[in-house]
């Protein structure tokens, strides 16, 4: 069995000049420094999806749209997800919500955590993301990084993300790793059982 957990880092925004790239590079470096995980950026810019126009939710019927099929198949290759999460009007950016709606099997039974940012650390957005993740049959982990207040303002003006955020990143990643390993083992056992 392969050992390293495959973690997708998914930015929640696609607009030109987005801030997302800074925390995305930061958390990618944190993952790459660990022996138990490997990180891949899965950028929504590379997965343009139409606004949801399927005849049923993907939990009931696979997507007809080829781009959506490719998106869910891409998600299926990962053991867990770290969303780099902005807050747009106190919730998750629409482009992320659409991408969440356009997956199901690829999300199911896997952990999702977040590096959230905004004036109040993206906390309102993350609470919404957690509720959405639960409906997608994911494990929404409690650990998180919140880049807010002066840390956010400093970073948006070109400063580095401060070192005092490192322990919350470690806590987040430890929790994602625990659930990613547990759910990967369970999926492998279920696949083996189905093949008997
Ligand atoms: C449409 C929109 C709505 C926003 N709403 C909020 C908000 O509710 N709370 C907040 O902290 N910041 C809000 N902001 C500011 C964002 O935190 C800031 O622009 C951040 O850089 C957005 O992430 P991005 O650069 O990756 O797009 C909003 C920004 C946009 C573009």
Write up this protein:
With 196 residues, the chain is an alpha/beta fold. It has one domain: Flavodoxin domain (Rossmann fold, 3-Layer(aba) Sandwich), CATH 3.40.50.360. It is built from 6 helices and 5 strands; from the N terminus they run E-H-E-H-E-H-E-H-E-H-H. It has helices at residues 21-32, 66-76, 94-101, 123-135, 149-156, 166-195, and strands at 5-11, 37-41, 80-85, 111-117, 139-147. Strands 2-1-3-4-5 form a 5-stranded parallel β-sheet, sandwiched between helices. Strand 1 (5-11), helix 1 and strand 2 (37-41) form a beta-alpha-beta unit. The chain starts with a strand and ends with a helix. The mean pLDDT is 96. Bound molecules: flavin mononucleotide. The site of flavin mononucleotide has 13 residues, from loops.
Q: What is the compact description of this entry?
A:
The protein has helices spanning 21-32, 66-76, 94-101, 123-135, 149-156, 166-195, and strands spanning 5-11, 37-41, 80-85, 111-117, 139-147. The protein has 196 residues and is α/β, with parallel strands linked by helices.
Question: How are the elements arranged and paired?
Answer:
Layout: E1 5-11, H1 21-32, E2 37-41, H2 66-76, E3 80-85, H3 94-101, E4 111-117, H4 123-135, E5 139-147, H5 149-156, H6 166-195
Parallel strand pairs: 1-2, 1-3, 3-4, 4-5
The structure holds flavin mononucleotide.
